[in-house]
Amino acid sequence: MSGLLIKNATIIPLDGRRGEEAWFKGDIAVEDTLIKEIGENLQEKYGDYEVIAADGNLVLPGFINCHTHAAMTLLRGYADDMQLQEWLSQKIWPREEHLKADDIYWGSLLAVLEMIKSGTTAFADMYFMMEKTAEAVSQAGIRAVLARGMMGFGQKALETMKESEELIKNWHGQAEGRITCMLGPHAPYTCPPDYLKEVIKLADKHNVGIHIHLAETAVEVNDMKEKYGLSPIKLMDSIGLFTDRRVVAAHCVHLGEEEIEILIENKVGIAHNPESNMKLASGVASVPELLQKGALVSLGTDGASSNNNLDMIGEMRSCALLHKVFSQEPTVVPAQQVLEMATADGAKALGLDRVGSLQPGYKADMIIVDVNEPHMIPLYNPVANLVYAAHASDVKTMIVNGKVIMKDRIVKTLDEEKIKYMAKKCGEDLMRR
Fold first, then answer.
1. How far apart are the C-alpha atoms of 246 and 266, rounded to whole Å?
2. CB of 414 within 8 A of CB of 139?
3. Assuming Cys at both sites, which of 179, 207, 236, 346 could form a disulfide with 175, CB separation 3.0 to 4.6 Å?
């Protein structure tokens, strides 16, 4: 059987090795969707495989964006420098009422294109008309965990429940297994406890996880305490949302000691979004403490209307620097750890099987990063250069599920110029509605 042979690479496997053992020179053989072998001088053994010459560049697992809203690319730059609740209620939610299915499709394709060109091979998304996002993901060839954003009030409560179930029935496990689904109740302030209990029942019925925003702002925490007598984390714990199921909790900025213990005890995957949190002045999550205590912390960009990009390399750098300066301790959230958050730990948080590490038998999801640009020279420590020096544009080549998605910055699966043209047109039309 023919396959791919990535030759002469500087491999960063993200398989638990640390320090100087965290990278090494070698080749990677890919057969069908999986990594067949990692070793030295493999060309003789796999002589019939298509060769991709890494030429000493970095090969590592693709980045995993654990929280975003893909089609919000159409709202990039539309509303900035605002408080979160005003941003949502005065700008974002009213404009979203005018979104059409074509907007979601082209906005999602624009997001996926941006993610491919910056090294993201998998992402977790929460929005609406998610069948259109699923179509975009299927066409692009990358991996995604999709959830229909759910609102728990009025007619939308029934509509979003029904649409969520349809998404699961139509798309869970589809696109060669690259698409999986979760349920996406937006947040405790938009989904009351009785509604969330129905969400839990639906999640258990279909054996899927839950993706939710939690404890993003101090206002949210205070409002929940005033309304229910409990913080958002304790409220979710009290209704059993964390019990015996996979949960991805986005943000988790405002946590006390008891909330941290609840998240750790229930193995909740925390999706940390430092740039969105900084831009919306939501606060600084206790990431060093969470990591020190053993919490599962991954990394996300949030949507392009609150970041304003989907660049996981930039997100890694922001994450590492934010927590160093905030704690006034340069040793916290080191480069190796933040790279793990953006890859292997992201796969664990989303429940992606055999993804996020380069090992034989794992899915062949990987990127090649150029080390020949001036800002990447010299290369004493490849991990440090990735986190502190690299640019999104250094990602040269991407392989997902054993297929070449991008080679030498040319995306093979998508028409880049058409996507940019149509997304621009959709954005202009949206602003006129």
1. 9
2. yes
3. 179
What is the reported pTM? 0.97
- Indicate whether 33 and 125 sit together in one domain: no
Q: Are residues 225 and 359 in the same domain?
A: no
Cα–Cα distance for residue pair 296/45, rounded to 1 Å: 39
For 418, residues 6+ apart whose C-beta sits below 8 A from its C-beta are none
In a domain, 418, yes or no: no
Where residue 332 sits, what CATH number does that domain have? 3.20.20.140
- Domain hosting 144: range is 63-350
The DSSP code sequence of 69-100 is -GGGGGGTTTS-S--HHHIIIIIIHHHHTT--
Shared-domain flag, residues 157 and 24: no
Of the three residues 302, 328, 350, the one that is the final residue of a domain is: 350
- Encoded amino acid at 340, one letter: E
For residues 20 and 46, membership in a common domain is answered with yes
Residue 309 and residue 365 share a domain:
no
CB 277 within 8 A of CB 303: no
Task: Please choose, from the candidates 16, 73, 78, 63, the residue with its C-alpha nearest in 3D space to the C-alpha of residue 419.
Answer: 73
